[in-house]
Amino acid sequence: MSRGRPQKVADLIQRELADLLSHEVRDPRVGMVTLTSVDVAPDLSHAKVFFTILDKSRQADTTKALQRAAGFLRSQLSHRMSMYTTPELRFVYDESVERGDRLSRLIDSVTTPKR
């Protein structure tokens, strides 16, 4: 099954951004960020980067810090990736992990052990 160019670019962006965030970004508000996925537009002009953090209370600060670093990260990506243009980055907090955990706890609370 072919994954297509946008998906391959998204995977590469996710790997490179994870490396850049851990080694190059010095903003303390970024902290322990986990990139969960990247969605790239079919024309490769925009990329939506989904992330999670351990401390939900710092979500707004982390989102602002990532958006502020987006230009730097895009320029670093352009040096690492050999593409005609580098997609514009938009960071979005990924609530799917929390939602999945909440649903799992609800299911566990409803099911009763059989004896």
Task: Kindly describe this structure.
With 115 residues, this protein is an alpha+beta fold. It has a single domain (5-110), classed as GMP Synthetase, Chain A, domain 3. 49% of the residues lie in helices and 19% in strands. The protein contains three helices and three strands. It has a three-stranded mixed sheet with strand order 1-2-3, with helices on one face. α1 (5-23) crosses α2. The mean pLDDT is 87.
Mean pLDDT: 87
Q: How many individual domains? A: 1
> What's the arrangement of strands in the largest beta sheet?
1-2-3
Please provide the ordered H/E string of secondary-structure elements: HEEHEH
CATH class categorisation: Alpha Beta
Radius of gyration: 17 Å
Largest sheet: 3 strands, mixed
Structural class: alpha+beta
As a percent range, the share of helical residues equals 40-55%
